[in-house]
Here is the input.
Amino acid sequence: MRVLMIAPPGAGKGTQGALIAGHFDIPHIATGELLRDHVARRTALGQDIQKYLDRGELVPDQVVLDMVREGVVAAKAAGGGFVLDGIPRNMQQARALYLIGRELEMTADVVLHLLADDGELMRRLLARAALEHRSDDTTDIIAQRLALYHEVTSPIVSWYRDRGILVSVDAMRSADEVGREILTALEAMRPLLDHVPAHARLSIDLTSLGDAFGATDSTAGKTD
Ligand code: AMP
Here is the structure.
């Protein structure tokens, strides 16, 4: 199972990425974590990266793509599955990632798209800020990251929808409820992945199935 996660900051891609990785016993490659690790270790690259993180801007594509390529090569050696969380963030990264996937015979089977509205995301990130003290979890920088998501990341979603590998999930619920729905969907798809090529599949929109998975009535207004 090879999964890409596309979600605005605060929608839960770290939490759900870890859940999927544990469930399918595959590596979880999270670009934000890899970047923050460089900063924490004070590598030369880390000092450069920190400026982008602190401003809520995207780190240059090639820096992230090099890290991810390394992770995908290791994932291939470890059995062939992965959960990639945090990439692609723009169309250039989406194309580059696809080429890496083609070259390594590791293209994604599923793109998981988590949807939630900006007000809820801001609330969650400010709550996280109180616990984790991330330099980019301040009101201004969160607003900048959300704007960037809508401007350059969200447009990629339709590319994956057209390729037939998109699964959209309503993330305006508890992590447990969202996680249950994601694992149910991925388990249902698993037997198909080796037999039905992506171009012959249809993208799946689960966002209206909230009731079956414990939605509240707060799902109105969620956005890409
Ligand atoms: P995240 O942990 O995914 O919220 O990412 C935190 C920060 O890391 C982002 O605001 C960006 O500055 C940087 N980042 C993470 N992934 C990428 C990426 N694929 N391309 C560029 N910058 C990234």
